[in-house]
Specification:
By secondary structure, the chain is an alpha/beta fold. The protein has 2 domains: about 140 residues, 3-Layer(aba) Sandwich (Rossmann fold); about 190 residues, Glycogen Phosphorylase B (Rossmann fold, 3-Layer(aba) Sandwich), CATH 3.40.50.2000. It is built from 16 helices and 12 strands. Strand 4, helix 4 and strand 5 form a beta-alpha-beta unit. It is globular and about 60 Å long.
Length: about 350
C-alpha cells in the first residue's frame, strides 16, 4: 500500500506530522510513505527513516484553483492508495482529491465530507492535541488504537561532528550552552524586549553561555534586547553564532544543554532532538495543544493563564490574539522567576 501524508505551511507543523509517517510505518513496515511538504521545511524531515519519499508543494507555483487541480492530477501516476491530509485547507484538500486515491482522510469540516472519504472529528480537551489529533487520522486508516509518540529529528554523524568543531572554535567547552529563542515569529508571539531582557538577566545569574537564535530579518530587534540586558548578562551572550543552514542550526542545537525562550518552531525542534526546554507561551496560544513532553524537570512551560486564570474564564486563548501585546505587559518575569532559576541551576550542574 502506498500512502501520501500532506502537511503544508509551518515548520513546527511539518515536524509534528512526522508522527503520522512513523506510526504507519511501525504498524505496516512494508507500506510506502510519501510526505508532502513545502521546500523550506525540508530540514526537519531529512534522513527520517519512516519517510520513503518527499513530495514538494510550492505555494507560488501551485497558487489558484486550476493550478491546485493540475498539481493534484500530477500525483495520479503515483497511484496512491490513501491520502492523509493533516493540513486541511484548500491547498491540501484539492491535491488530495485529484490525486485519485480511493481513501482520503482529513479532519471534519462542513465542506470536507464532499471531498474526503473519511472525516475525523477532533477530540476536545486533550493534552498535546497537536499530536493526538494527528494520530486520530492514522487510526482512521489503520483501524487500530495507536500509542502517543513524539516527533524526532535525525542528524548525520558528519553534521554533528561539524557542529562540535564550530562550537569548540567559538565557545568555552567548560561551560553549559543554552540556546535562547529570543524572538517568536512575530510580536504577538514574543515577549516584549524589556521582559525578555529581564528573563535573560535571570538566566545569566548562573555561569552559562547564551546563544541568541533569531531570523536574519530580526537582528535589529535582537540587538535591542541585547542592549537592554545587564552588562554581566551581555558578557555571557554570544550574539553572532551564525549557521549556514537550518540543518547546521539543528546540529548546533543538538549540542546545547537546553533551549529557553519564546514558544515556536525552535522549541519543537529542541524537543525532537531531546534537548531540555523552558518555554514561554504567547498569551493567545493554546498551551495544551503544543506543550508536548511537558514535565516538572526537563520540559517546563509557562503561560499567562497559569498565573491569571480568571482572565481567560471559559474562553479559548485564541480569542485573545488581538490583545496579545496588552496581555504580554502582564506577563512579568517575576511570575516564573523561581521556576526558571531552578531550571537553569539543574542545567548548570
Amino acid at each position: 500500500m502506498k500512502v501520501l501524508v500532506i502537511q503544508n505551511k509551518m515548520i513546527g507543523d511539518v515536524l509534528t506530522s512526522t508522527v503520522i509517517c512513523e506510526t504507519i510505518k511501525k504498524h505496516q513496515p512494508d507500506w510506502k510513505i510519501h510526505y508532502m511538504i513545502q521546500p523550506n521545511t525540508l530540514a526537519v524531515v531529512e534522513n527520517n527513516p519512516f519517510i520513503d519519499k518527499i513530495v514538494f508543494f510550492e505555494p507560488q507555483k501551485h497558487k489558484g484553483l486550476f493550478k491546485l487541480i493540475s498539481f493534484g492530477s500530477s500525483l495520479a501516476p503515483e497511484k496512491y492508495d490513501a491520502v492523509i491530509d493533516a493540513y486541511g485547507k484548500w491547498e491540501s484538500i484539492l491535491p488530495a482529491y485529484f490525486s485519485g486515491a480511493k481513501i482520503r482522510i482529513g479532519f471534519k469540516k462542513w465542506y470536507t465530507s464532499l471531498l474526503f472519504t473519511i472525516t475525523v472529528i477532533q477530540k476536545k480537551n486533550v493534552e498535546g492535541s497537536a499530536v493526538y489529533h494527528r494520530l486520530q487520522l492514522v487510526e482512521a486508516l489503520l483501524k487500530v488504537k495507536t500509542e502517543i509518540i513524539f516527533p524526532k529529528i535525525y542528524l548525520t554523524d558528519t553534521e554533528i561532528n561539524q557542529s562540535k568543531t564550530a562550537i569548540k572554535e567559538r565557545l568555552n567547552p567548560a561551560l553549559k550552552i543554552i540556546m535562547i529563542s529570543v524572538l517568536g515569529s512575530g510580536k504577538s508571539k514574543s515577549l516584549t524586549p524589556e521582559k525578555m531582557a529581564k528573563t535573560l538577566d535571570i538566566i545569566a545569574e548562573q555561569d552559562v553561555q547564551l546563544l541568541f537564535n533569531f531570523m536574519p530579518d530580526q537582528e535589529e530587534e535582537a540587538k535591542i534586547i541585547y542592549d537592554l540586558c545587564k552588562t554581566q548578562t551581555q558578557q555571557r551572550i554570544v550574539f553572532d553564532f551564525y549557521t549556514k543552514s537550518l540543518r547546521a542550526f539543528l546540529a548546533v542545537l543538538s549540542q546545547c544543554d537546553a533551549l529557553i525562550g519564546n514558544e515556536g518552531g525552535a522549541v519543537n525542534m529542541a524537543k525532537a532532538l531531546d534537548i531540555k526546554t523552558f518555554t514561554i507561551f504567547s498569551p493567545w496560544i493554546n498551551k495544551s495543544s503544543w506543550n508536548m513532553l511537558s514535565d516538572k524537570e526537563n520540559h517546563i512551560a509557562v503561560h499567562l493563564k497559569d498565573f491569571f486564570p480568571d482572565i481567560y474564564e471559559n474562553k479559548h486563548p485564541k480569542e485573545f490574539k488581538s490583545k496579545s501585546l496588552e496581555l504580554y505587559n502582564k506577563f512579568d518575569s517575576n511570575l516564573y522567576k523561581g521556576s526558571l532559576q531552578e531550571f537553569v541551576k539543574r542545567i548548570s550542574l
